Amino acid sequence: MLKYTLCLIRQGSKILLLNREHPAWMGCWNGIGGKIEKEEQPRSSMLREIQEETQIESPELSFKGLITWTTVEGAGFGGLYLYAAEIPDEYEYVTPIKTEEGILDWKEISWIMHPDNQGVASNVPSCLEKVLYESSCYNHHSIFSDKIMVTQISTKIDPRIEADEAMRTDYLNQYLQKYIEAGFAIK
Ligand SMILES: Nc1nc2c([nH]c(=O)n2[C@H]2C[C@H](O)[C@@H](COP(=O)(O)OP(=O)(O)OP(=O)(O)O)O2)c(=O)[nH]1
């Protein structure tokens, strides 16, 4: 159910974002990440995606929780592991960079968070403050309708969920129960 990773890499007042060429994400700035491969753990998968997409080697990752999503139309459930990383000011990483996946560029936090900004994956600005300035982990649950996010509910979660599979399964089962009861099909 949690098939993806996403990392918000910060340097000073900017976040490194990727504008993917993938049709579903075209024109939309999002964090670095991708699909977790079979037999991979979330953290190692995250490090692999960062290396592949940015060439940045082994940044120090902080686990920040999950982003999960459902749709009001009942099209199922999805989720990702959310990470943050910080790159020191002296590390020179010049953008824009055109990669196989799309364009990488540093974007100002104030630009990302601006209420009129429609160019960023919709559930990133709404969780960014917690990711950057809080040490607790959250599940940011986003509810979409016709590809538009209608609401996001952020609840604290135990950080051990990242590595403890039994705890994660328990959490997701409890958490999903209310969606199952409401008639959502869970993939
Ligand atoms: N901000 C945000 N990111 C999302 C959501 N859903 C979702 O899959 N992502 C992220 C997870 C991954 O980092 C990325 C998936 O990108 P993708 O569609 O190119 O995945 P992919 O299977 O091709 O990945 P890859 O391993 O080939 O790189 O988007 C969402 O609702 N919000």
Automatic annotation (TrEMBL):
Pfam families (alphabetical): NUDIX
Gene3D superfamilies: Nucleoside Triphosphate Pyrophosphohydrolase
Domain Nudix hydrolase stretches: 1-133
CDD domains: NUDIX_MutT_Nudt1
Protein's recorded name: 8-oxo-dGTP diphosphatase
Organism: Paenibacillus hemerocallicola
Lineage of origin: Bacteria, Bacillati, Bacillota, Bacilli, Bacillales
